[in-house]
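User: I'm new to structure prediction. If I give you an amino acid sequence, what do you actually give back? Let's try with this one:
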Amino acid sequence: DINAKGTVNVENKVTNTIPNVPGAHIIGDACRVPFGQAGLPKAGEFAWKMGVSVADAISGKTNPADRKGNCAAEAGFGKGFILTPNFSDVCNDPENGKPKVGIEKTEKGTALKVDWCNEYLKEIFGENVHPVDLK
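Assistant: Good question. You get back a string of structure tokens that encode the predicted 3D arrangement of the chain. For your 135 residues, that looks like this:
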């Protein structure tokens, strides 16, 4: 069922199954992972990790959900902060799991954001990509 926000609530928070649709999974902005009123946040990093969990499930493996994020937020002049939300326990233990969130100031906001981007570029394209370099 599509909810009022135009998304589908997942049945299983690890494998992102769709209720009453055997063998179907949903990830990213199209899904809502129930938790509190709003559900878990939507971010590309979480969608990527949902995709890994769904691929595992389709191939017959069910590993614990990895829903850790890492967001380097810039505040200008290279400064910023690192936000590290972790919703893994919420997905792996829906009855008792609680989110964890860390935050720390950094003088390397820009460099950390570039490193984060380069990690995903390498993950997607392998060695066939030129890394981002702001120098």
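You can read the tokens as a compact description of the fold. Here is one thing that stands out. The first helix runs from residue 44 to 58.
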